[in-house]
Amino acid sequence: MDQLYVSRRGFLSGTAASTIAAGFALALPSEILPQSAAQAPAKSPRLSLDMVQEFVRVGHFDWDRTKTLLTQEPGLLNATWDWGGGDWETALGGAGHMGRKDIALFLISSGARMDIFQAAMLGRLDIVKPLLTAFPNLAASKGPHGITLMTHAQKGGEEAVAVVRFLESLSQQA
């Protein structure tokens, strides 16, 4: 018998314990409860999936449309799209592997969450090197669509040559 069996007595005693615990928590003054438990902020409705997909898609290549959509819906800034199979991507992630520094810098200046892939594309050796020194296995991690860290750095052009050389030195050491 694979199903969990709970007797009526076990169910009732478990329910009673839960009810008592919940009642105790409600009786506590709000000063004792954590801020999140006392006053959970109201959430906005979910973003339109079509809008999220468009924002991530245009973040790859269209600065004007990216800016327009973000102005219309600021919640898109860190929205992610699942292209399938767990291939999650943000507009910033798309800009990163396409070498779109203008879009990437706009999104970062707007507060987007940056990762090692965009740092590599932007030529930020001051960010990439300490991360890879602390966590060497990150050099083998993949970004959106399985795109490598090296490819992101190469998309950065002249400004990212130092990052490309650093990544090459790591592969020669391995």
Key descriptive features of the protein:
174 residues, mainly alpha, two-stranded antiparallel ribbon, 10 helices
Helix content: 55-70%
Structural class: mainly alpha
The biggest beta sheet reads: 2 strands, antiparallel
- How would you sum up the global shape? globular
The end-to-end distance, rounded to whole angstroms, is 52 Å
CA-atom Rg in angstroms: 23 Å
Topology pattern, helix = H, strand = E? HHHHEEHHHHHH
The low-pLDDT segments are: 1-13, 15-28
Model description:
With 174 residues, this protein is an all-alpha fold. 56% of the residues lie in helices and 2% in strands. The protein contains ten helices and two strands, in the order ααααββαααααα. It has helices at 8-27, 35-38, 49-58, 63-72, 91-98, 101-109, 116-121, 125-134, 149-155, 161-173; strands at residues 81-82, 88-89. The chain has a two-stranded antiparallel ribbon. α3 runs antiparallel to α4 and α9 runs antiparallel to α10 (161-173). The protein is globular and about 50 Å long.
